[in-house]
Amino acid sequence: MSSIAVNGAGIYHELRGTGPSVMFISGATGDAGHFERVADLLADEFTVLTYDRRGNSRSLPPRGWGTTSVAEQADDAAALLSELGLAPAAVYGNSYGATFALDLLLRHPGVVRSAVLHEPAMISVVDDPAAAQTSVRSAVQEGLARGGPPEAVDRFFRLVVGDATWDRLPTGLRDRMTSNGETLVGVELGTFESYRPDDSALAGITTPAHVLVSEDSPGFFHEAAAWLAGRTGFEVVQTPGSHAPQFDHPDELVRTIRPLLRMHT
């Protein structure tokens, strides 16, 4: 557990286990703890890297940082793998993290051995982007009105994973996640959803990858997965749980992805 300077930001990261390297990239609130249970289970076979994305939890942003992009987030991930000597690694990304992982495949293929893209938040590719974002926007706006950015995070995750799962998360993790409300609401939300590489770039990806969708996720995530698979040839795989199965079905998630991570080692 330590921090390293990456692209001008101090990136907190955790390493577990031994064996082929696997990086996990989290989505909203960007905390390494999203994958604590999953990382612990996989550490029997892999060197597992988790990290707090810039501006979230224990990763302090550069002074004056107030905007970001898919490219910046992917550059951070690529630089972290290189600095730690873990490239090429298998990369698993969830939601925003899956979008960043896709950008790694396009712009930093040398650091990626294979990838599992769980429900990339590429809302612009679905038939009705506005409808897909309505419930999230409503939850965030209600939270902001009632308690500011921390309450917006609370409402967001209660919508995504349900009250019971959210309330079961370790208190320290929930506190860090809610403390990231300023970054989520003020910097990230609405920034990454429009990401849409052109078809020729997607067709040119040669790194092995799978698209993962959760059985209980809203239909637009399945729609986006099918869109991406149709342009890349990636196989679509299903796993139990919600948009954040690392929280509500971590053991089942590990059973789903372990054989995918073993490929191409």
From TrEMBL:
Gene3D superfamilies: alpha/beta hydrolase. Residues 23-255 form the AB hydrolase-1 domain. GO terms for molecular function: triacylglycerol lipase activity. The lineage of its organism: Bacteria, Bacillati, Actinomycetota, Actinomycetes, Kitasatosporales. It comes from the Bacteria. GO terms for biological process: glycerolipid catabolic process. It comes from Streptomyces regalis. This is AB hydrolase-1 domain-containing protein.
